[in-house]
Amino acid sequence: MSSKLFNFVLGLTFASFVAAGCAVPDKGHIAGCIMLDVGHEGRVVAHDGKVNATKTGKGTQSSILGWITSGDSSIEFARNADGADIKQISHIDYHASHILGIIGDCTTIVYGQ
User: For residue range 17-26, what is the model confidence (pLDDT) as tens digits?
Assistant: First the structure.
């Protein structure tokens, strides 16, 4: 392979990493180019506050370089994760993290009864 073609492919690969955001789980946070570890408490809260948080369910989605992503961080999955079987939701928390934009994850935590 000629060096010009190699440099072009290398540059294109680098540009795709920068443009894709790699494994940054949520663009709504303040960017941390070396590390991100943030959470939101009570992102969704029951209207009347009468639902007690007696059960907890978690759903996590992980990513490597934004190329390989696996897992389920949906509210529906978290409601039923590990046998939680949450019928009424009290509130929902959210946590996101990444290291160097290489490995990242986001977790949805559902509380209720």
Answer: 554 554 555 5
